[in-house]
Each structure stands twice: as structure tokens, then as C-alpha cells.
Write a structure and sequence with these properties.
binds zinc ion, Metal Binding Protein, Guanine Nucleotide Exchange Factor, Chain A, CENP-V/GFA domain-containing protein, zinc, about 170 residues, carbon-sulfur lyase activity
């Protein structure tokens, strides 16, 4: 393990809020005391996530599902399945992509871009340090997204599993 991967002296939130662009859907995430902010922070560059988010890199933070709750109604929430069993949730009013979730897991991959700005400015590193799993890196765009991840941290997978590729 590299030295920076063990660095753990950054501000960590106990709870965050976020929501979609139009405000119809608001949520809160409470993190357990032992939440690993390094391991839970990752990204995906697969074509599904790119098309879904409109961003070249989907920056995700995996939270325990039992710490996630809605603060509003979910009337405008829709789940799209590009792959069976994998939820891609978005607001049908404004289009914000909120999370990715494997229904067989007990986690939820929050789209970090929809976390409220005050939490991003205070806890951005905790939420988006990319020290966890960074997948589908074979889709990296030279000179653009291949410089995004700190090569001293995290694991780059060429696809969603298999051999690590740095
Ligand atoms: Zn919305
Ligand atoms: Zn993806």
C-alpha cells in the first residue's frame, strides 16, 4: 500500500444531504462510525454511466443503504435499468442522476455531484478521493480522464472486475 493510501487525516462527515436540481427529491445519508471513506470512494467510466450522467466520469460514493433516507416525496423519482437488477435513479422533472444501486447489495452508490455544495466544499475529499474502486478504466480518454485519478491511490480496474491496471 502506498503511503498516501493510508493517509486518513481529512474531515469526515457523519451525515450529508443532497438532492436533484429542481429540489423535488432530497435525501440524507448517515454514515456509520466505522465508515471507510477511502474504500467507499470510487468512479466509473463505463458507457452506461457516461450516457446516464452526461459526465465522462461518474464519481460515486458507496453508502450503506440503511443509512440512506428520503427527506421529500419520491413522486418524480424513476429507476431505469440498463442492466437487470441495477437501479439507475433519476428525477423525471429535472433529469438529475441521483444514484446507482445493485439490488443484490446492501449499499447505494450516491452520485457525488448531487451532494449539497456545503458538504462538497467541507467534505469533498472524504466523498470523492477515488481511493476505492475505479472501474471501466479501459474507457479512459487520453489526456482528459486518464489524469483524473491519483495514481498513488485506489485501484484501477480495466473493466468492472478482473486484474488491476494502473
Ligand atoms: Zn428534480
Ligand atoms: Zn458504470
Amino acid at each position: 500500500m502506498s503511503e498516501s493510501a493510508s493517509v486518513d487525516n481529512f474531515p469526515k462527515p457523519t451525515s450529508i444531504t443532497g438532492g436533484c436540481l429542481c429540489g423535488s427529491i432530497r435525501y440524507q445519508v448517515d454514515f456509520p462510525k466505522d465508515h471507510d471513506f477511502l474504500k467507499a470512494s470510487g468512479s466509473c467510466q463505463c458507457t452506461q454511466c457516461r450516457r446516464n450522467t452526461g459526465a465522462l466520469i461518474f464519481v460515486a460514493h458507496t453508502a450503506p443503504l440503511n443509512g440512506f433516507k428520503y427527506l421529500t416525496s419520491t413522486e418524480t423519482l424513476k429507476k431505469y435499468y440498463a442492466t437487470p437488477g441495477i437501479q439507475r435513479a433519476f428525477c423525471t422533472n429535472c433529469g438529475s442522476f441521483l444514484y446507482w444501486r445493485d439490488e443484490s447489495s446492501d449499499g447505494i452508490d450516491i452520485a457525488v455531484g448531487c451532494v449539497d455544495p456545503e458538504f462538497l466544499s467541507e467534505f469533498g475529499f472524504a466523498l470523492a478521493n477515488s481511493s476505492g474502486h475505479n472501474v471501466w478504466c479501459e474507457n479512459e480518454i487520453k489526456g482528459v480522464t486518464d489524469h483524473f485519478l491519483n495514481k498513488e491511490r485506489g485501484i484501477k480496474w480495466s473493466q468492472n472486475s478482473g486484474s488491476a491496471k494502473m
